[in-house]
Amino acid sequence: MEVDKYGPVVKMGSGYELRFEDDSDFEESYQECAKNDLGETPERRAEGLEELRRLIREEKKLYLPTDESTELYLLAFLRVCKFYPESAFKRVKFLYKLRQKNPKYCNDLLPSLEKNVFEQNILTVLPSRDQHGRRILITECGQRWKIKNCSLTEIFRGIELVMEAAILEPRTQVSGTVLLVDFAGLTINHVWQFTPNFAKMVLDWIQYAMPARLKEVHIVNQPYIFNMVFAVFKPFIQEKLRNRMLFHGYDHTSLLAHLDAKCLPTKYGGLMEIETDQGIELWNLLCYYEENYKVTNGFGYKKKK
To answer: Tell me, what's the pLDDT at 304?
Structure first.
């Protein structure tokens, strides 16, 4: 990672750059998406923020500042709920209650504490958005995942850190995210790491808490044994998410029917000549925002005395 005049950036491959954006001046395509998909107008945005702030202030045991410093964060909740303040508030409460109940997975979420998972090169944020302007996160849960070196808890915490950075990108709030999960090399030892309790917690986070528009989940390179993993998660998957899950196996053509080749690495049939082995660079990029993570770690329900 290096820092140029625009901020921190990770150089990937030949001519590709990954940086987290904070520019709220949208291109026309994002403006149209915000208006048509989310019903966002300046008036609805202002009204939604005002009402959501009021609801948060009335939730006495919840600490979440409602001044200008958290406006972009609150917009993430409003945008995922298409500017219905009550629905956004429900998601806020669910998130912080989930974090309170699951300290193992959610407490002290700081990049500086989670270097190990990024050293394994399990997580990759692609530098190019897809043809719909969506962020793409790759998780490699097979060959790259050495159980003795990295726990499933660490992988989930790493995903949380990446998503927290992504949801503060205005373009990502509007266009959403795509998750590509690569199960090449999955073994029975990997399968044993997934429990029903873990599956329920993760899916509760995705479906009811995370302030992000998860538009598609692509499962690739999954061996037959993957069915055992999916059986653990299946009871907790709601119809909306189930309809957004696509299983491609080893068929790159199937994947490319949904994601443009220009935004995918060659290992997945794309045109981007980059390797998914720059996890430590991604970690350095997240560490640049360590102070921001420290602030958001302070949000939540007050502990009982």
So the answer is: 65
Residue 242 lies in a domain: yes
DSSP state of 206: I
Please provide residue 217's backbone torsions phi and psi, each rounded to the nearest 5 degrees: -125, 120
Q: How far apart are CA 305 and CA 238, in angstroms?
A: 36
Angle at the Cα of 219 from the Cα atoms of 215 and 223, rounded to 5 degrees: 170
Would you say residue 10 lies in a domain?
Answer: no
Query: What b/e sequence results for 62-94 when a residue is b if at least 16 CB atoms lie within 10 Å of its CB, and e otherwise?
Result: bebebeeebeebbbbbbbbbebebeebbbbbbb
194 occurs within a structural domain: yes
The residue from 50, 81, 106 where one domain ends is: 106
- Domain housing 234: 111-288
* CATH value at residue 192: 3.40.525.10
Q: Find, among 223, 222, 217, the residue nearest to 259 by Cα.
A: 217
User: d(Cα 35, Cα 196) in Å, to the nearest integer?
Assistant: 39
pTM over 0.90: yes
**Are 96 and 161 members of one domain?**
no
262: DSSP letter? G
pLDDT of residue 305: 52
Residue 284 has pLDDT above 70, yes or no: yes
* Selection from 213, 209, 153 nearest residue 179 by Cα: 213
Is 34 domain-assigned?
yes
Mean pLDDT, rounded, for 151-161: 98
